[in-house]
Amino acid sequence: MAGAWRLFIGGEWTEPELGYYDVLNPATEEVVGRAPEASGAQVAAAVDAARDAFESWSRTAPEERAAVLDRTAAVLRREFAGYAELAQAESGATAATARGMQVGVAAARFRRYARGALEPLETGLPPQVNEAGPLGKAGVLGALAVRRPVGVVACVTSYNNPWANPAGKVAPALAMGNTVVVKPAPQDPLSVYRMAEALAEAGAPPGVVNVVTGARPEVGEAVVAADGVDMVSFTGSTAVGQRIAEVCGRGMKRQLMELGGKGAALVFDDADLRSAVAGIGTTFSFYSGQICTAPTRVLAQRGIYRRLVEGLARYAEQLTVGDPRERGTVVGPVISAAHRDRIESYVALAAEEGARLVTGGERPARERGFYVAPTLFADCTHAMRVVREEIFGPVVAVVPFDDEEEGVALANDSDYGLLDYVWSGDVARAFRVAGRLRAGGVGVNTIGRHMEAPFGGFKRSGVGRDVGSYALHAYSELQSIVWPG
């Protein structure tokens, strides 16, 4: 699997001017492949290629764009096994996650936006009757609101899902007639080059899709700041998102930001505890907690507090931590040694702050790889940093509360507002509480996602919404057309 990749610029595979860097398997620390390090000039060339391709691509028939996306999905299905093997190697995902949630979701997103390219662009507005005046004679005006492509979109993607996250940006952007420059996360960029191969095979014209990579932050900064970029779509940390937003503000660039999360899970006394434990427990296993939607901040009503903590401890202790290639492994590694060390620093900090370590907290006994044991803290207060800050690892902190008012207040006392959760046997109360939560989404007695529902965050969790038709809106501008009736 190891090999050196080249940049993809204007439909050509291009040697990087600044050499290569190693992409490591986080489970074994072996080299998966070598990723190219783009120069500033090559970033500019990628943006120019996208700019040059925009005029023709934006004018193609929707049916043609749909066909390219549908053929891309077919290539992903044909090469499914190899793509999943690469995703697992460079991200450390388990086989089930790499197949189902990474490559499988990517193929589904290209299929979805093949249909999306055919969705109506025009919305008719009611006719307006105008009296005679300074602007003309009396008459009736008709109007349309029409969605138009934004232009060149910089897609800056996250490391936790090297297939589904880029596909969720590239597919709707192309469906709307935009062209893209993709800057993948430096930890696992090789899958995105495979995606570019699939798009080229499917007939995406030169320059419509460009991929530049680099371990240096300067590469992403150059992409975001380029004059030829009209919009930035970013998934990642709030801190990086804030810096990107400052650059976008100076250039009046459109933004779609899916940033950090510290999901509150409110569990009431009448909740189905088995359901709550199973849902919250996914923080320990799914992507090894490296997901912004995880219910990591558990607010438990005192009547079930002890039983919920005990249930979560049993759940965590039954999970097998190990090489994701091995059958039976549930919890794989985190993405890098640096990230493992960051998570461990939060575990140490929680103990210093007075949280009670219930289970986990130690580094698993593995000769190689970047592993963190599923870790549960109880008897936390809401002022603790382990409760307030995004850790992005398999760490759950539990805080008790007395009544509904306190639970809602604690849930909303956060810089973040991406996805919150409510578990209660009283569905009316659950929906009432959901309506009071300052979050872009709320799961009621579930952690499940509806893949047509708008996705995005309140507060520092982001700007804008995507998924389903909302992504098509995000990657378009509205133009109004008015005419005399």
TrEMBL record:
Record's keyword annotation contains Transmembrane helix:
no
Database matches in InterPro entries? Ald_DH/histidinol_DH, Ald_DH_C, Ald_DH_N, Aldehyde_DH_dom
List the SUPFAM superfamilies hit by this protein, alphabetically.
Answer: ALDH-like
Annotated Aldehyde dehydrogenase domain ranges read 13-481
Gene3D superfamilies linked to this entry: Aldehyde Dehydrogenase, Chain A, domain 1, Aldehyde Dehydrogenase, Chain A, domain 2
Keywords for this protein: Oxidoreductase
Extract the Pfam families matched here. Aldedh (PF00171)
Q: Does the keyword Oxidoreductase apply?
A: yes
The record's PANTHER family line, in alphabetical order, gives: ALDEHYDE DEHYDROGENASE-RELATED (PTHR11699)
Protein name stated in the entry: Aldehyde dehydrogenase family protein
